[in-house]
Amino acid sequence: MGDYHAFKESATFRALSMTPSGWYYNFADCGDKRNDEGDVILAWFATKTGNKTFFEKERFLMSPADMGQLSRLAGMALVWISQFEEKGTQALPTSWKGDGSNPIVVFTGGENDPHQYYFGGKGGRGTVNHGNMDGGSFIFELNGVRWVIDPGNQSYNELEKTGFELWGRCQDCERWTLLTKNNFGHSTLSVNDQLHVVDGLAKFTDFKTGENPEATLEMTSAFGENLASASRKFIKDSPKSLLVIDKIKSTDKTKNITWQLLTQAEVQMVDGGVLLKQDGKTLRVENLSHPELVFSVISLDPAPLELDRQIAGLKRIELRIPAWVLKEDHAEIKMRLVGQ
Predict the structure, then answer these.
(1) 8 A C-beta contact, residue 246 and residue 188
(2) In Å, how far from its chain's centre is CA 289?
(3) Calpha distance 142→239 (Å, rounded)
(4) What is the Rg, in whole angstroms, of the alpha carbon atoms belonging to the chain?
(5) What whole-number distance in Å separates Cα of residue 137 and Cα of residue 25?
(6) Using CA atoms, how far apart are residues 269 and 41, in angstroms rounded to an integer?
(7) For the chain, which terminus, N or C, has the lower number of CB atoms within 10 Å?
């Protein structure tokens, strides 16, 4: 198994899931933040490959008091750590795509990036194990600040104690009433204020690496009869910005399209978009395609349901586009997120 390509690639995925802010790319059931101690799973890969990138020496040398509670694998990790012999350093890729039933892409600025650029975007569908209706969603960090968030996971035990039907996968199952599970709690598109099609798979159809990487996501099946077609393209168009381009074609059932962004930042309305402020820094969301339309800000603190995960300062920025605005049933929604 150690020589199986997909298995070895999982180390790259794990390392890339740790963002400059100290959070994980916390989609699906992932926790929000990592612990302070060294990553013992990556230590195993470091031992097998000799790649120093996977060996977090400084974290392993922390005092026990600073490490806190160790992983249940810590005993075995002592063996892996003691066996590590450096054979070189293979840097993590600055653009990466993982396929499968819950595909993701990651763009970064690299190890010494002064802007601490991080983008993570995903496809998938609700019926994937532990999945959400989050196809087309993304997170974005710049200058050490997470500007666009994923609401992450919440305690299954606390939900199940109430009798909540958490594990149903049907289109109208109770699971999809939760903000952490439905498309209204993610930075994606919603059409006619309806849930995504539960088994509609969003998948990447194009991926380009290089200085300005890009990835295109086919999303048509997530919207059923509400749209004739839909795709979303992510482009790192500069070291400090992200371009998001949605191309859609409507049907006679299309009433409105909502472009959504989830954030904990303070929001200020400005000409042609919004200005986000957090931790003394700013990020501008530029509405390049429909500057005549004004964003709305929906407070999600408190969240809609008592059983929802409560996230301080959470809000959803929306641009609602009525179907009658579309020209010849087509629309291109173009947004640019650019930092200081």
Answers:
(1) no
(2) 23
(3) 9
(4) 21
(5) 12
(6) 44
(7) N
Phi, psi torsion values for 83, nearest 5 degrees: -90, -5
Residues 6 or more apart whose Cβ sits within 8 Å of residue 67: 35, 36, 37
- Residue 54: closest CA among 23, 24, 26, 16: 16
Are the CB atoms for 105 and 25 separated by under 8 Å?
A: no
Calculate the dihedral angle through the C-alpha atoms of 306, 30, 231, 210, rounding to the nearest 10 degrees: 150
Identity of residue 5? H
List beta partners, residue 146. Answer: 141
Which pairing describes strands 315-322 and 214-218: parallel, antiparallel, or unpaired?
A: unpaired
Q: Which domains does the chain show, CATH number per domain? A: 5-83 (no CATH), 95-339 (2.70.98.70)
- In angstroms, the Cα distances linking 19 to 25, 109, 141, 172, 246 are 7, 11, 8, 34, 25
- Could you list the pLDDT tens digit for every one of the 340 residues in the chain? 467 777 888 999 999 999 999 999 999 999 999 888 889 899 999 999 999 999 998 888 888 788 777 778 888 888 888 999 999 888 999 999 999 999 999 999 999 999 999 999 999 999 999 999 999 999 999 999 999 999 999 999 999 999 999 999 999 999 999 999 999 999 999 999 999 999 999 999 999 999 999 999 999 999 999 999 999 999 999 999 999 999 999 999 999 999 999 999 999 999 999 999 999 999 999 999 999 999 999 999 999 999 999 999 999 999 999 999 888 889 999 999 999 8
Q: Would you call 188 helix, strand, or coil by DSSP?
A: coil
Dist. CA 150–CA 145, nearest whole Å? 13
Judge if pTM exceeds 0.85. Answer: yes
